[in-house]
Amino acid sequence: MTKPRPKHLNLLQIRLPLPGVISIMHRAFGATLFLAIPLLLYAMQLSLESPQSFDGLKSVLAHPLVKVISLGLVWAYLHHFCAGIRYLALDLDYGTDLGPARASAKAVVAVSLALTLLIGVWIW
Amino acid sequence: MVKREVVGAHYGLRDWLAQRITAVVMAIYTLLLVLALVRVPAIDFWHWQALWKLPVMRYATVLFLLSVYYHAWIGVRDIFMDYIKDPGLRLTLYVIVIGALVCYAVWSVQILWSL
């Protein structure tokens, strides 16, 4: 016998718990980082090619808009990093109960935001 | 008796494991890189280039980047599997992503070994 399962897939009405929020952010930021690979490789190349290209890159990175974008990528990396560590722990059966799982989700948000803020202060 | 396999193509566990092993490689590299960068006396061109010329840096970075590309492939493929329903479009996207990642890998080696 099949019971009709309750479906509620209106994205504007679903109230995702925090572990769900950091999960979708993990995916979205992962995709963002993938798209950023060519930019980062190009920056790496410029930084190592010659003193001229190094200085050129440095002046581009000093632009406020570029700083905001870089900090966004830093946040994406840190969030993906912290959430990834959390998933590794969950895979090893650490923190799988509801309480600890919610607490570690909060920690992922807090730690990645705090480190991003720190780097933001450093680059400004 | 016919021995039947009722599960899929069997790449699931391998990819699941690869995703985690590459993640650990990348995490360790990230922490070591931060330590290395903190120890650089000054971030000018010559110090910066000297750092990346070290063989240990080259090999560790190539290992890291190859981990990134493999990890990215599994992640992006999973995203496409979830949201792209049309098989033709999905296959096209797979080919584009694989092509891009292979180019990135060659480019990475080129950057690090042309110093």
How would you portray this structure in words?
The complex is a heterodimer of chains A (124) and B (115). Chain A is mainly α. Chain A has helices spanning 18-49, 51-61, 64-91, 98-123. Chain A is elongated. Chain B has 115 residues and is an all-alpha fold. The N and C termini of chain B lie far apart (62 Å). Chain B is elongated. Chain B contains four helices and no strands.
How would you briefly describe this protein structure?
Chain A is an all-alpha fold and 124 residues long. In chain A, 78% of the residues lie in helices and 0% in strands. Chain B is elongated and about 65 Å long.
Which labels suit this protein?
heterodimer; A: 124 residues; mainly alpha; 4 helices; B: 115 residues; 0% strand
The total strand number of chain A stands at: 0
For the record, give the distance between the C-alpha atoms at the N and C termini of chain A, rounded to a whole number. Answer: 63 Å
Q: How would you sum up the global shape of chain A?
A: elongated
Unreliable stretches of chain B, pLDDT < 50, 5 or more residues? none
Q: In what range is the share of β-strand residues of chain B?
A: under 5%
- Give me the Rg of chain B, rounded: 19 Å
In this structure, how is the largest beta sheet of chain A organized? none
Structure classification of chain A: mainly alpha
